[in-house]
Amino acid sequence: MEQNQVSTEHKHNKNWYDKSYRWMLLIPVLILVFSLVYLVQFYHQNGDVIYKDVSLTGGTTISIFDEKINIEDLTTKLQAQFPDVLTRGIQNIRTGGLEGIIVESKATPDEIKPFIEETLGYKLTGANSSVEFTGSTLSTGFYQQLIAAIIAAFLLMAWVVFLIFSDNRKIKSISTMLTFLGVALVLYQVSAIKSLSGFAIFVGLVYGLFKVKHREDYYWILGTGIVSYLIYFLFLKEWLLIIVGLVLAVLYIIYSIPSFAVILSAFADIAMTVAIVDLMGIQLSIAGVIAFLMLIGYSVDTDIMLTSRVMKEHEGTINQRTWGAFKTGITMTLTAIASVGVSLIFIYNFSDTLRQIFSIILIGLLFDIFNTWVTNASMLKWYMEVKKLG
Amino acid sequence: MKLTWRIWLLLIVLGLSLLAIRPSFESGALVKSVQMNSEIYNQGLRAGEIIKDINGKTILDKADYTSVVGEIFSGVVSGQQKIEINTNKNNYVLFLNQSPEITVDNIPKTRIKMGLDLQGGARALVQSETALTDAELDDLIQVSRNRFNVYGLSDVNIKAVSDLVGNKFMLVEVAGATPQDLEQLVAKQGKFEAKVGNTSVFVGGIGGEKDIADVCKNDAKCSGITQCGQSGTGYVCKFQFTVYLTEKAAQRHADVTGNISLDETGQYLKDKLYLYVDGQEVDSLNIGSSLRGQVTTQIAIEGPGTGKTQDEALQDAKVNMNKLQTVLITGSLPYKLTIVKLDTISPNLGDEFIYLLLLAGASAILAVGIIVFARYRKIKASLALLFTSFSEVFIILGFAALVGWNLDLPSIAGILATIGTGVDQQIVIMDEARKGKTLSMKERMKKALFIIVSAYFTALVAMLPLYWAGAGLFKGFAFTTIIGITAGVLISRPAFSDMIKDIEEK
């Protein structure tokens, strides 16, 4: 019964999908190009690819718990004194009533607290308020570290994906060495990570040299090992990451289009989500940046499932396998969207941290549906047909 | 259902998690801290005991404690009150003229520890102005810990943290209510100096080569509020306590004062003894003429406290006295410090927040359940899926309780994220199990597990760098996610695949 249903639906889809899947790739390409152009332009205007809130620029967030507070009045008075002040209400989800107000400013608590106390006519204590202050040097440092963490996470994710779907021992070895060189380049100041990376480069080298088939491969692997170690010991400069990243991208494209399709989809998810977040004018907090890290993990889930179903199985046609994967994948993403969406509703007015995390994951998941089933699926099908696989 | 060893493993781990979380139904008020050398401390009461009743009145929770103690010491009743405290370990009979110098809290219902963002408290990240070695940072932490102890705050957690670029910080966390003076206690160097004219007589710190032999604290005979009075529109109270100098410092005092002439009245010396903390003058004391050139090891230190009402002034004087005694006892911090991050989080929304999170988590699982049921129309399989998701959350909580992890907001976000990815992977298993019969069930499960293990490693490597980023303040996210996905891959998903195998093969 179930089986019949699949094949009729699939027949119905077949002609249309076979004809148009390459054209469909144009849509994500256009959106991705638009997002990237927008982000470059955004960077030129704002000096960064996102708007940052006080947890990333340095400053103070004060939450005052007072049901009778007059938000507009306090806001106007504060903004007269501190032009960068932002305020918003805290609502109780059960009663819908006002619980208090959140005030954000780049000023220090010592500067802004007395002014608020004077306006409200009472002292802010631990019982009626929360005050969070981050110094600007520290928050700038946090931001750079989170970006480094995201870059390292992305490099490692791409490497794992390549290991899963490629059979080329030589490139597996080379990409291992380069990936961990890249990780060392961004995170060399943490001694644990640096030593671990050094060791991983060694493992990659040994793994490559262990069963060499051609003399030429031998030189390539040994050469990469030597260059990696030279850089590792003598010249750990961040800018080299661009070269290492480009070399890795080229290797992935040449040696495993399916892996590259997965990595590209994850990249597109992130780039498109950043663009939307910017367009909505959201100021990202530390939590928001962490959400992008989660997105890396979330978005490759369905891509890996799709790719292993299409490549590693031999039942049915490519379209049938893709359709089967689609049914699984869309259930996966829908459940994720449902759980994140429901949580978002509950904490929307309560926790800024969780609201940002859930909003970003929600946007990312919506893009992921599109990038997995259009970008990745089309690239994979194209590849399989050109290679006459399946 | 056939209970395979994988399902048994899951059940055993769930049992162990329950044991680690260990819900408690005991009633009473838990003693969180006892002020050192206070009357009740000397009687033997220690943190960790549970107060069961006071003067025959049963204490069920913190609120009971507050109201019963408040009643005893309320109003204008002055003089000493008899108070009889029964704890789970012992009973204590005291005569006090103020509330016992202890802090109490409700007995935690489980072993799960809530982070500051949920239960309230304060957190300060402190950095030295000069770069410190690990040994120097340890030194600093020792002195700071001592300072908090002397001050009377025992529920303080101080540790060294570093970030991705090798910056070193001291992280100070105070759970529960926020002490007002946290900022000063943490970052003030507390360099005490007593000077006559421009000559230093003695500096703060007890022990070793230092100048002070002892400082009177918590002893009404030589430390307390001496007088209160109106001054202008407010009130001023004066505190006084005795400091015992070492012979060397006393000799110095004698040498310095020996050459100073008397003032017009002939009662005092012309120059005063000036007290400085961190270069700022705190007070100046007249030196009696009889002390000139004398080797005296006992010095009375005075200082004021102010407020709008007499009560406020009294409190302020007490706080100031405590601060001054603390710096005199502990000496100055070895380094100049800056607070780079300071969060004080009110505890009053914590309960509502936990309620919301439970509600959000339950609704999320329910929403997932509805979608899964709509897709598969199989009540048994859907229930198995929900059970597995729930058990993953439970295992994370159990593990967190076991290692004493503080569940903060990042940790909670990690748990919610794990629900999402966990369900995803169970769906992969369900779909593999239901697919065409050309492959055996065992082979299909193997393929599902391949996809799951692949996804596991990508998620794992993505989380690792976060463990170090941002002075470890976001560690919680990586911690709960990694525990969750690891428990999933090793324990709950193999069990789930056995359950599905069993359900599908029937």
Protein described:
The complex is a heterodimer of chains A (390) and B (506). In chain A, 75% of the residues lie in helices and 8% in strands. The longest helix of chain A has 35 residues. The radius of gyration of chain A is 25 Å and the shape is globular. The N terminus of chain A is likely disordered. Chain B folds into four domains: 174 residues, Multidrug efflux transporter AcrB transmembrane fold; 78 residues, Roll (Pdz3 Domain); 68 residues, Alpha-Beta Plaits; 126 residues, no CATH class. With 506 residues, chain B is α+β, with helices and mostly antiparallel strands. At the A-B interface, strand 5, helix 6, helix 12, helix 13 and helix 14 of A face strand 8, strand 19, helix 9, helix 11 and helix 12 of B.
Shape of chain B: elongated
**What count of structural domains of chain A?**
3
Distance between the termini of chain B: 10 Å
Compute the separation of the termini of chain A in Å.
26 Å
Could you name the CATH homologous superfamily of the largest domain in chain A? Answer: Multidrug efflux transporter AcrB transmembrane domain
Oligomer: heterodimer
Taking Cα atoms only, what radius of gyration of chain B do you get, to the nearest Å? 31 Å
> Could you name the CATH topology of the largest domain in chain A?
Multidrug efflux transporter AcrB transmembrane fold
Largest β sheet strand count, sense and barrel closure of chain B: 6 strands, antiparallel
CATH topology of the largest domain in chain B: Multidrug efflux transporter AcrB transmembrane fold
Amount of beta strand of chain B = 15-25%
| Outline of chain A | globular
